[in-house]
Amino acid sequence: MISFKNVSCTFEGGAGIENATFDIEPGEFVCIIGPTGAGKTTFLKLIYMDIFPEEGTVGVDKYRSDKIKKRSIPMLRRRVGMVFQDFELLKDRSVFDNIAIPLHVQGVGMKMVKDEVENVLERLGISDRRDHLPSQLSGGEQQIVSLARALVKDPLVILADEPTGNLDPAASLKVIELLEEINRDGTAVLMATHNFSLVKDRGYRFMQIVDGEVQT
Ligand SMILES: Nc1ncnc2c1ncn2[C@@H]1O[C@H](COP(=O)(O)OP(=O)(O)OP(=O)(O)O)[C@@H](O)[C@H]1O
Ligand SMILES: [Mg+2]
Q1: Distance CA 22, CA 4 (A)
Q2: Which tens digits make up the pLDDT trace of 134-187?
């Protein structure tokens, strides 16, 4: 479902990813670990096709980084739910409206939007926060809203960039358990984290980025 073939994406000073080759299958739960600056966000952005490799190819579903046309990138992103490191919620929109954005972009009808958003609010246990603005939420709640916005598209894979980065242990565990539940329902999850102790005993497949090398 996701395949990297000899992918290099490097920045000045030797940072980035070098010559990575691996596959991720549908429904897998993969944890990408590595210290700050190792290239975890870079890794996820390659899959989201926010950036492109200087060498090699990234394949996601039927899309390939060396063939995709700019106008097809939104189609790819329907299949890939990104949970950003800094949430990227719209400050002047309610929780409900933030989660509805990807569906509006797809031109989904109002009734369907309402049903789908209510469904995911319920699924993630945040129905009572639907009319709040992001500023009225805790960091943990904002993280869950960001997850809801990724999930509402019913993607093949959720990319979660440091989803527990700013949360206390209880809120972190809640986010991890929600990701596991989503995964049990069949969605692949790729989570980047530097909090190894939180994830080490949970039975995930681990990929580690060490000096630009992706060890699988
Ligand atoms: N657009 C860019 N231009 C130049 N250097 C970049 C760019 N994007 C990332 N880098 C560098 O590449 C390296 C990897 O960055 P990346 O954001 O992928 O790390 P990370 O593993 O996600 O770190 P963190 O745990 O802090 O989020 C860093 O040294 C960063 O400074
Ligand atoms: Mg990062």
Answers
A1: 5
A2: 999 998 899 999 999 999 999 999 999 999 988 888 889 989 999 999 999 999
Count, in order, helices (H) and strands (E) of the chain. 7, 10
CA 147 to chain centre: 8
**pLDDT exceeds cutoff 80 at 39:** yes
The amino acid at 206: F
- Which ligand sits closest to the CA of 84? 2
Query: What does DSSP say about strands 63-64 and 80-83: parallel, antiparallel, or unpaired?
Result: unpaired
Q: Give the global pTM.
A: 0.92
All structural domains of the chain, each given as residue ranges with its CATH number in brackets, are 2-215 (3.40.50.300)
pLDDT, one tens digit per residue, over 100-114 is 999 999 899 999 999
Distance 182 CA to ligand 2 centre (A): 22
Which amino acid residue places its CA nearest to atom 27 of ligand 1?
A: 36
The CA 34 to ligand 2 mean position distance, Å, reads 10
Instruction: Return the half-sphere exposure (C-beta side, CA atoms, 13 A cut-off) of residue 81.
Output: 27
Cα of 115 from ligand 2 centre, angstroms: 33
Burial status of residue 89 (CB atoms within 10 A of its CB: 0-12, 13-18, 19 or more): buried
Q: Is 156 helix (H, G, I), strand (E, B) or coil?
A: coil
